[in-house]
Amino acid sequence: MKLWGGRFTKNTDKLVEDFHSSISFDCKLYRHDIRGSIAHARMLGETGIISQEDAQTIIRGLREILADLEAGRVELSTEAEDIHMNIEQLLIERIGDVGKKLHTARSRNDQVALDTRLYLKEEIETIARLLVDLQEAIVEVAEVHVDTIMPGYTHLQKAQPVTFGHHLMAYFEMFQRDWERLKDCYKRTDVCPLGSGALAGTTFPIDRHLVARELGFSKISRNSLDAVSDRDYIVEFAAAASLIMTHLSRLCEEIILWASHEFAFIELDDGYSTGSSIMPQKKNPDVAELVRGKAGRVYGHLVGLLTMIKGLPLAYNKDLQEDKEALFDVVDTVKKSLLVFAPMLRTITVNKARMLQGARGGFTNATDVADYLVKKGLGFRDAHRIVGELVLYAIEKEKNLEELTLEEFKQFDRAFDEDVYEAISVEACVKRRDVYGGPAPQAVLQAINEAKKVLKSNRDAYNEKLR
Ligand code: ARG
User: Fold this and answer.
1) Which terminal residue of the chain has fewer beta carbons within 10 Å of its beta carbon, N or C?
2) Do 62 and 186 belong together in one domain?
3) 100 and 114 share one domain
4) Total count of domains within the chain
5) pTM for this entry
6) Does the beta carbon of 108 sit less than 6 angstroms from any atom of ligand 1?
């Protein structure tokens, strides 16, 4: 008979049993479920709701079940519906009637909320660590390339020369925001819902703080109806994860472009590329493509979760069971993507000569020619027009700006002088952009030094469990 079978006269239809069972996926929560139950049983004993002896018997039973599950010595059953009832049923099978006392002053509704929060807290810690690893890889590669000149783009058209170190450090900033979002979302996950019961708390004199403390929560929830129906923390996490995937995906897109024959700015390590079954010459950036592709499925889960929740009246509804597959898949996808990304990045080979060559063509120094004229006393708008005409002329002559003779420059404005050449070399263009936050090697070095401090504080924070 089902644990809830008392008011039923017929068995659940087999189809329904398969349909509503969640054990195939929520089995992932067994450790958290048992941890939560042990804390609950201990509290029941401490408060005298059950005897200390019964509490100890229950705790011992739960520990054995945990050990057996870890060792693969027990099977979970679909008939027992979900992880919570599976474990309770196993407990009763093993320790008899005492096991039936575990669910006193508790409901699966506050139990499942507890389990997913315990699970997510752990996973956010892991993901935060992976994110910091990736940031470290970015800083490492950026440091080697503080003065590696490359073209910067807008509209994927060459714009102004930058440094590869600066380009990479842009991603450091994105991931730092992601890190902060994770930390923030952790705060709202770190709330213990146990004691909210099915929806209306309990009549037993439980000690919610005791349970929360034992399970390492810094707060307890304030409203029982909210606590059993709240999945905001999962949505927030999926949103934070979506942005992580967005940033990974943008970098993937660049890596794919840079690794192409047309750009040839970088080469991926053989260990992080794959071949073609038909074209022998191919070396494909599959890892980057796959991460880019996986971003879509994480977004899908975010929208799925939001949609799942939006029409639900308070408090618990079975719809909420749908949160888990989405959450688990988001966690797994983000973890796998981050894990493979850092070593892929660390092992790229940078073709500095190609990058420099790329920075040279395409009139990337046109703004600097205009700036040059401004420093000679022209208004920027006039300078802009003159250089525009100069570019048009250079295109006709099939020359770069720095290849024009001084005579040619002077035809466009008398202010041009011999010093123009020094002023508009790509090296000078980059070096002079030493404004705070700019691409000049000096500015990038400063950014890297600041980033290292940020990384240290990130590491300290996750050592302190993100509190
Ligand atoms: N398996 C359920 C879930 O994941 C547990 C809570 C079930 N509660 C209930 N009243 N049916 O949401």
Assistant:
1) N
2) no
3) no
4) 2
5) 0.94
6) yes
